[in-house]
Amino acid sequence: TCPQCHRSASLDQRGLRGFQRNRLLEAIVQRYQQGRAAAAAAAKCQLCDRSPPEPAAVLCEQCEVLYCAACQLRCHPARGPFAKHRLAPPPAHPGAPGGGGDGGGGKGAGGGRKLPTCAEHDLENYSMYCVSCRSPVCYQCLEEGKHSKHDVKALGAMWKQHKAQLSQALNGVSDKAKEAKEFLVQLKNLLQQIQENGLDYEACLVAQCDALVDALTRQKAKLLTKVTKEREHKLKVVWDQINHCTLKLRQSTGLMEYCLEVIKENDPSGFLQISDALIKRVQVSQEQWVKGALEPKVSAEFDLTLDSEPLLQSIHQLDFIQMK
């Protein structure tokens, strides 16, 4: 069973040799091999100092220079900037068969070359085409009755018909290949545009986030200024109270010490001369310590509350707006 078309075929005593030979493919392979051999013989190293130059072993597709094996090792090592260069076999010689010219095969294919004979009847040439078996046949194949009931057509007509069909199919493939090449160019341009747009959007995102950070930094400076003013105000109030209380305490302490010295005196007449004035002074001094005078006017706590939760939520919800 053929693994490609899944058709079953019976083998006769000839075995695999009983199958039809693909003569067209054989001719193509032969022309290709002859072309490669002629090209290898004709291509010469372009950097050789020898006369004549050595045959070329490789072609650098980037440098477009032919090298022999020795010149390649000396002038084109596989390292450094040459490591990424692609080395290919030497190109086909233009005059060689299959090498880009007419190849000398045009006339041979038409008239000079011997026509293929039937695989079953060596003395007969193919002249008809069996549509049912999809193979060329000779007149003897038809006379023996193997293809008598099959649909048989002229070999030349079917040859032209199949060539026309293949050419038409190739035109369709060629059009698709052209579209594919244009599509590849479009995709490569798209890659470049995506790269450029990605860099632009990254720069825009960084600028926007930096602007937000700058705004937050400025606002932080303003809030710190308010906290500093509040701290300085509280410190000033406390220092004023400290100075005022210290002054009053010094006055009261001095008055107390003076009164204690007066009380120690044993002269009633001298004491009574100044006692009324001292009593009034002590009463006035006592009245200065009114209710609340010995209480701080400010507290150590700062009555400032920063509500950062809405801003924090906004930062967490910061995202791109995409319309798809």
What does this protein look like?
GO terms for molecular function: zinc ion binding. Its main location: cytoplasm. One of its GO terms (cellular component) is cytoskeleton. It is found in: Cytoplasm, Cytoskeleton. It comes from Pomatorhinus ruficollis (streak-breasted scimitar babbler). The protein is mostly helical and 324 residues long. The protein has a domain of 70 residues: 30s Ribosomal Protein S14, Chain N (Irregular). Helices cover 55% and strands 5% of the residues. The strands form two sheets. A three-stranded antiparallel sheet has the order 2-1-3. Strands 5-4-6 form a three-stranded antiparallel sheet. A hairpin with a 4-residue loop joins strand 1 and strand 2. Helix 5 runs antiparallel to helix 6. About 6% of the residues have low confidence.
Order of helices and strands: HEEHEHEEHEHHH
Which structural class fits the helix and strand makeup? mainly alpha
Identify the overall geometry.
Answer: rod-shaped
Number of helices: 7
- Report, as a whole number of angstroms, the end-to-end distance: 54 Å
Number of strands: 6
Query: Strand order of the main beta sheet, please?
Result: 2-1-3
Sketch the major β-sheet.
Answer: 3 strands, antiparallel
Helix share bin: 40-55%
What is the CATH architecture descriptor of the domain at 21-90?
A: Irregular
Average of the residue pLDDT scores: 81
The radius of gyration is 55 Å
Strand content: 5-15%
The CATH class assignment of the domain at 21-90 is Few Secondary Structures
CATH topology name of the domain at 21-90, in short, is 30s Ribosomal Protein S14, Chain N
Question: Uncertain segments of ≥5 residues (pLDDT<50)?
Answer: 94-112
